[in-house]
């Protein structure tokens, strides 16, 4: 649950600050997050589609409320634990579980549905459909199912023309399981950076979903929801005709991978890791900080991009980027900060005890290392709230 920190009406200020917070700590700039949410919400409204945010990144009811200030809306999750958490702590009832269904997890999914949640599961095989239908026959509530469509060869799903698409839908119908529709994820978009290529990926995603939906409808199946989504394609789609909803997750915070793709600017990144300088190796031009891979994660998602940001881009205490300064290496609890290769700049003089903030490669992976967000407003120093994060599967 959220712990909101208030200053007393009189006497000295007692709010914690970034200058005194124990490090490492996960810091969330609420103003930047709100701008990011408003941006994608406006895009969805312009295309007249539902935005179903993927809360696998945030994993926080308090963060979700910044998207849905008027009450719970439609969400996507990546674990059944997330579905249970958001239903229990936030009252969310319209939930899509967008990971392929493990037959062993069917009873748990049906229990969530029996609690009053409209839980929609995802599958792409006859075996999964059969397992869900068999268990659903004696269950008090049934989960509708999406059939996942492979739009770019990135991961799972059936191709739109695969005969198993109709066979799987038939198996769902035989088991009394409603077909929610089709769902795609344009994961290959994460390897792109050209705006036209990203727009083409979004269009390929749209066409694949519509083709699969048409095949199902031609075979006599209703296909009410056509769900597409990745953060890059959600922002670069030029045409969403026929699509009913868009899913995206990291858009709330963004990260260095998204900046490298061109989805956002560095100034849009809302998540940082607060760290402290704990040493210096002058002979190696190293600065040591207390944020290693346990705080930053081992994600090196920018290594394949035009600009390799190491384990993260270094900022001052107020979130201003220090040019060319990166976390070049990461041990468990030590980060090694140095100038990026080829830089003509000198290593800055950062005395022991200096507070820094690290912009992460992958907000989902970095967030997963922490139990809570320390929330600030813009470049403010004061921590205005602590938002807990859920963990587990």
From TrEMBL:
Residues 270-377 form the D-serine dehydratase-like domain. GO terms for biological process: D-serine catabolic process. InterPro entries: Ala_racemase_N, D-amino_acid_metab_enzyme, D-ser_dehydrat-like_dom, D-ser_dehydrat-like_sf, PLP-binding_barrel. CDD domains: PLPDE_III_DSD_D-TA_like_1 (cd06812). GO terms for molecular function: D-serine ammonia-lyase activity. Signal peptide: none annotated. The keyword Cell wall biogenesis/degradation does not apply. Pfam families: Ala_racemase_N (PF01168), D-ser_dehydrat (PF14031). Keywords: Lyase. Belongs to the DSD1 family. This is D-serine deaminase-like pyridoxal phosphate-dependent protein. It comes from Novosphingobium marinum.
């Amino acid at each position: 649950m959220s712990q909101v920190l208030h200053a007393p009406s009189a006497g000295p200020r007692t709010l914690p600050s970034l200058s005194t917070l124990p490090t490492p700590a996960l810091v969330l700039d609420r103003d930047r997050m709100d701008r990011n949410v408003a941006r994608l919400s406006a895009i969805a409204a312009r295309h007249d589609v539902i935005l179903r945010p993927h809360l696998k990144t945030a994993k926080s009811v308090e963060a979700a409320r910044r998207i849905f200030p008027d009450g719970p809306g439609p969400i996507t999750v990546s674990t059944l634990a997330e579905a249970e958490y958001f239903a229990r702590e936030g009252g969310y009832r319209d939930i899509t579980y967008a990971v392929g269904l493990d037959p062993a997890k069917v009873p748990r999914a049906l229990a969530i549905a029996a609690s009053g949640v409209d839980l929609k599961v995802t599958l792409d095989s006859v075996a999964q459909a059969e397992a869900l239908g068999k268990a659903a026959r004696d269950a008090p509530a049934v989960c509708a199912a999406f059939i996942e469509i492979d739009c770019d060869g990135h991961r799972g799903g059936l191709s739109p023309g695969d005969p198993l698409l109709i066979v799987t839908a038939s198996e769902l119908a035989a088991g009394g399981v409603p077909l929610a529709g089709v769902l795609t994820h344009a994961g290959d978009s994460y390897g792109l950076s050209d705006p036209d290529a990203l727009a083409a990926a979004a269009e390929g995603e749209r066409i694949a979903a519509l083709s699969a939906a048409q095949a199902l409808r031609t075979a006599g199946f209703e296909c009410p929801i056509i769900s597409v989504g990745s953060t890059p394609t959600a922002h670069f789609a030029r045409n969403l005709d026929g699509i009913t909803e868009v899913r995206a997750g990291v858009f709330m915070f963004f990260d260095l991978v998204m900046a490298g793709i061109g989805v956002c600017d560095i100034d849009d990144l809302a998540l940082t890791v607060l760290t402290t300088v704990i040493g210096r190796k002058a002979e190696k031009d190293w600065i040591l900080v207390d944020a290693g891979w346990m705080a930053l994660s081992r994600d090196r998602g920018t290594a394949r991009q035009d600009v390799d940001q190491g384990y993260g881009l270094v900022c001052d205490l107020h979130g201003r980027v220090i040019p060319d300064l990166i976390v070049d290496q990461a041990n468990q609890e030590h980060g090694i900060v140095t100038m990026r290769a080829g830089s003509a700049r000198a290593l800055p003089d950062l005395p022991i005890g200096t507070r820094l903030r690290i912009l992460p490669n992958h907000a989902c992976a970095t967030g997963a290392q922490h139990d809570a967000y320390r929330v600030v407003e813009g470049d403010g120093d004061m921590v205005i709230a602590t938002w807990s994060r859920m963990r587990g599967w």
